[in-house]
Amino acid sequence: MPKNKIIISSIIGAVSLALAFSASAKVGTTAIRMRLGTHLASTTSGMHMRIASTTRMTSQQKIANIQGRSDTEISNRVNALNQLLSRVESMKNISSSDEASLSSSIQTEIANLTSLKGSIDADTSTSTIKTDFQSITESYRVYALVLPQSSIIAAADRALDLINDFNALSTKLQGYIATAQSNGTNVSSASSAMADITAKIADAGTQANAAISLVSGLQPDQGATSTLKANTAALKSAQADIKTATTDITAARKDVTTIVNIIKGSLSLSTDNSTSSTTASTTTQ
Asked: Where do the H-state alpha helices sit in 90-146?
């Protein structure tokens, strides 16, 4: 074969081989790309599925956590309200209408909280359960209103109980003072203390009744800012009234101690005089 033909044949063969290799390479690359694309798609899909699964688990866990916290918060409030209800039912010195109003308010709050607990336990959305959870403190104002309201009325009722005791005691003390005076005892300090008791007890009664009037008709604000401010102001004013009543009662107790000491001295003197008279009479006989 002529040399030129050999060279041309070799070149054609080399080109054909190169083209064949190039085609094979393209096919191989395409296959690799296809396999890689399939793998990436599969991996990405798996990642999305795992992320979605993780997100669902996280949301479910958040809901479960909020439900647990809600149950605790609501249970604490309901227990406190039931205790207050028992205290209200045992009060002696508030009007039947005030007692009925307060009892109704407490029972309504218990019913609302119980209903809210059912809603929260059934929630499946994080946004919904967060709103319900916030309403425990924002709408159902147990600690902000109902508990302090009832505590103030209970304190006022207790103060009025003590005032009744003081009124009964005052009658006896006045009799003892009169007896001491008839025995020749200087009772000016006792009389002043008795007058102070009368004034302090009267003022304590006024303050206690004022506290009851201020808070007995209050209702939860249900998120209304103006009502919240009015309730807060009324509670603060009523607490100040209870403090004044307590101070009055403490002062009255000190006055009682003063009177009792004077009466004791008078009784001792009376006993000594009686003993001396008996001794003198016996000696004379």
From this structure: 96-122, 126-138
Same domain, 132 and 145: no
Structure confidence at residue 158 (pLDDT): 93
Whether 129 and 170 map to the same domain: the answer is no
187 falls within a domain: yes
Query: Is 125 contained in some domain?
Result: yes
3-state secondary structure of 79: helix
What one-character DSSP code corresponds to residue 143?
I
The pLDDT score that the predictor gives to residue 96 is 82
Residues 6+ apart with CB under 8 A from 127: none
Mean pLDDT by runs of 10 across the 285 residues of the chain is 48 45 46 48 50 60 88 90 86 82 84 90 87 80 83 92 94 91 89 96 96 88 86 96 97 94 71 41 38
Q: Rounded to an integer, what is the distance from CA 18 to the centroid of its chain? A: 87
pLDDT of residue 118: 92
- Of 86, 113, 140, the residue that ends a domain is 140
Q: Is residue 26 part of a domain?
A: no
Domain, as residue range, for 81: 52-140
Q: How far apart are CA 109 and CA 82, in angstroms?
A: 10
Cβ atoms within 10 Å of 172's Cβ, excluding its own = 9
Summarize the chain as % helix, strand, coil (round to 5). Answer: 90, 0, 10
Domain end call among 140, 172, 206 = 140
Report the alpha-carbon distance of residue 200 to residue 203 in Å, rounded: 5
How far apart, in Å, are the Cα atoms of 79 and each of 65, 100, 170, 268?
A: 21, 20, 40, 54
251 and 161 share one domain: yes
